[in-house]
Design a protein that fits this description.
332 residues; mainly alpha
Length: 332
C-alpha cells in the first residue's frame, strides 16, 4: 500500500496511511476542521495535492523498487528507516515524553503495524513483482468495502447507501480479477493483493478498538518499526538475503526506495495529519478515490502499463463504490 500509518487512540482511526486508512470510513474527529462555508486556504489545497500525488505515486515507486530489490527486504528497510526517522522527529519536536507508552499500547501498536505494514503493505510489495502498479492500486481501493462489512459484523449499521457502495466495490473487484483469470497477469499476484486488502482492513478496524498510543505520530513510528521488523523476519524466512548483492541494485530502485521513505512515509504523512486538523474531513477523504486514479495514470505514463478494459471498467466501478461509501460516511 501507499501510505504510512497513523493511529490515534483519542479518535477513531486516524488515517494511514496513513498511510492507507480511509478517513471516510474510520473517520477521526478532526478537531480543527474548517467550518462549513469557510474558504479553503491555499495551504490546504497544497497539502491535499501532496497526499493525492505522493500517495498515488507510491505504487509506482514500489514497482520500481522491486525491479532489483527483494520485496520484503526492501519493505523492511523502508519501514524501519521511516519509523526511526519519525521517532527522532517526534523526540526532537515534542520531547522524549511524547514517545512514552504503556506495555499495552506498545503491544497494540505492534499488532496494528504487523497487520497494516507486513500484512497490508508487505503483501502489496510482493504482489507488485508480478502485478502492474495501477492494477494493484485499484484492487487496494476496495478496502473501504471490507471495513464496512467488518463494522456490520460488529453490530454497526452503516446504512443502505454504504451497502450499495460495498456491492459496487465487490463487483468492480470481480472485474479486476479478470486479468489474472485470463492469464494477462499472475492470478497469485492478484489474490495476494486481495489478501493484503483484508489484512489492511482488519488492522484499520482494530486500531480504534484497542489501547493505542495517544500521540498519533509516536503510534505511527512504533507501527512502522514493528511492521518493518516483521517484513525483515519474513524476508529471512523466504531466503531473500541469499544471493542478494547491494551492488546489483539499480540506481532507480535506490531512488524509488528513498522516495518512498522520505515522501511517501514522512512528507505525505505529515501533510495528511495536518489536513485532519485543518480541513473538512469530507475534503480530506477524497484521497480514497483519487489515489487509485493517480496510480493508474502514472503506471501507464511512466512504466507503459497497459490499461485493459477489465482494469478500466473494474477500476471505474470500484472508485464509484468507494465514492458512495465515503460520501455516505461523511454525512453521518
Amino acid at each position: 500500500m501507499s501510505c504510512p500509518v497513523v493511529t490515534n487512540s483519542s479518535t477513531p482511526e486516524a488515517g494511514a496511511s496513513a498511510p492507507g486508512r480511509t478517513p471516510g470510513i474510520t473517520a477521526p474527529a478532526a478537531s480543527g476542521s474548517a467550518a462549513p462555508g469557510r474558504r479553503i486556504s491555499g495551504a490546504v489545497w497544497a497539502a491535499l495535492a501532496i497526499v493525492y500525488v505522493v500517495w498515488g505515486s507510491t505504487y509506482l515507486g514500489i514497482r520500481i523498487v522491486v525491479e532489483t530489490m527483494p520485496p520484503f527486504l526492501s519493505a523492511a528497510g523502508r519501514f524501519v528507516v521511516a519509523g526511526l526517522l519519525l521517532a527522532a522527529l517526534v523526540a526532537w519536536k515534542q520531547g522524549l515524553s511524547a514517545l512514552r507508552v504503556t506495555r499495552a499500547q506498545l503491544t497494540s501498536a505492534a499488532i496494528v503495524g504487523l497487520l497494516l505494514l507486513l500484512g497490508g503493505n508487505g503483501l502489496v510489495v510482493l504482489a507488485e513483482t508480478t502485478v502492474p502498479s495501477g492494477l494493484a492500486a485499484l484492487l487496494i481501493a476496495v478496502v473501504p468495502a471490507w471495513v464496512v462489512l467488518l463494522r456490520t459484523g460488529f453490530g454497526e449499521r452503516p446504512g443502505l447507501a454504504a451497502y450499495l457502495g460495498v456491492a459496487l466495490g465487490l463487483a468492480g473487484l470481480a472485474v479486476l480479477t479478470l486479468p489474472g483469470l485470463s492469464g494477462q497477469v499472475r492470478i497469485t499476484g492478484v489474490l495476494t493483493v486481495i489478501a493484503a486488502t483484508a489484512m489492511w482492513s482488519i488492522g484499520s478496524f482494530s486500531s480504534s478498538r484497542i489501547p493505542m498510543p495517544a500521540n498519533p505520530f509516536a503510534a505511527s513510528a512504533y507501527e512502522m518499526v514493528a511492521g518493518g521488523i516483521g517484513c525483515l523476519l519474513v524476508a529471512l524466512g523466504r531466503g531473500e538475503h541469499r544471493g542478494f548483492v547491494l551492488a546489483d541494485v539499480s540506481g532507480r530502485s535506490w531512488l524509488a526506495l528513498a522516495y518512498l521513505v522520505v515522501f511517501g512515509s514522512l512528507i505525505a504523512f505529515t501533510a495528511y495529519a495536518w489536513l485532519l486538523h485543518s480541513a473538512p474531513l469530507s475534503l480530506v477523504a477524497t484521497y480514497a478515490y483519487v489515489n487509485p486514479v493517480v496510480a493508474v495514470l502514472l503506471g501507464a505514463l511512466i512504466l507503459g502499463e497497459q490499461l485493459s478494459w477489465p482494469i478500466a471498467v473494474g477500476g471505474t466501478v470500484v472508485v464509484a463504490g468507494v465514492f458512495l461509501i465515503v460520501s455516505t460516511e461523511r454525512r453521518r
